[in-house]
Amino acid sequence: MFKTKIYKPLSKLKGKTSPYGKYVERENIKYSQLTEMYIIYEKYYENTKFSIFEADFKKKSGAILIFHPITNKIVGFSTVMVQHFYLDGKNYTTLFSGDTVIEKEFWGTRALQSTMLKLLIKLRISYPFNELYWLLISKGYKTYLLLANNYYVYYPHVNGKHAHLAKVVDYYCKSFFPEYYDQNTGLINFGNDYQPLKGEVAPITDEMRRNNPKIRFFEKMNPTWIKGTELPCIGEIAWKDLARYPMRFFTKPTSKGKTEVALAKMQLVKE
After folding, report:
1. d(Cα 143, Cα 187) in Å, to the nearest integer?
2. pLDDT in tens, the chain (271 residues)
3. Which member of 66, 149, 236, 257 has the lowest number of beta carbons within 10 Å of its beta carbon?
């Protein structure tokens, strides 16, 4: 397993108040940090148990941790697993995202995206001749938007593009989730004991359906998301993307998630 050198984030050096992230390998995550992660997780997901959360984490390679810029407390995370496989004459390296959650106060932060980008760059350099993809399963639209808003080549695509990636998704799901993957629906269903998002956490409103075709598309592809079904997705990291992604990331306007949180706070003040 490759090692990731950690540098002190610029946000802390400059006294900014934005959260910062870093990738930490599983064996270097303390039990107390795992407990912090679970405390956040159980706020946003139903039917949770620490024993299940811990057992699942032991299968992962590590986690991207998001920290508060002042207190250094964990305010979000995304568990990840690096895997390799061979398909149709090509070697594949994949970064799979597992449980992902950020405290609502910090929705809209780009710490997760920027830290994941650094991790993907390291993987791209470590496995220069492999096909490299980010794989995720999405039970909520916010996770899907991380893919759809940040990747040039991804699947399922709101405009029906890149259908050739369907075979990679299908192979991956059959290999790693054989008992849960429904090839007919294209969804993964872990059953009634799995942890769906709490309904009030990230609801899809009629206004969102009207105004955002990507959210509308996500719900079409995963109509049972509120029950915890997962939509398997994939995003490509080609060599040419290494120059394009930072430009896209740093020239983006203020995220909608951050705006939504600000408006919610204003509403609370009014009430």
Report:
1. 15
2. 544 444 444 444 444 578 999 999 999 999 999 999 999 999 988 778 899 899 999 999 999 999 999 999 999 999 999 999 999 999 999 999 888 899 988 988 889 888 988 998 899 999 999 999 999 998 889 889 988 988 899 999 999 999 999 999 999 999 989 999 999 999 999 886 566 666 655 688 999 999 999 999 999 999 998 888 999 999 998 888 777 765 555 445 444 444 333 333 333 233 3
3. 149
Selection from 75, 112, 114, 108 nearest residue 97 by Cα: 112
Read off φ and ψ for residue 133, nearest 5 degrees. -140, 150
Between CA 75 and CA 66 the distance in angstroms is 6
Task: Classify strands 62-67 and 20-25 as parallel, antiparallel or unpaired.
Answer: antiparallel
**Helical (H) or strand (E) element with 148:** helix 141-148
- Report how far residue 191's alpha carbon sits from residue 257's, in angstroms, rounded to the nearest whole number: 30
Closest CA to 169 of 80, 232, 83, 93: 232
Query: Which residues are registered as beta bridge partners of 131?
Result: 92
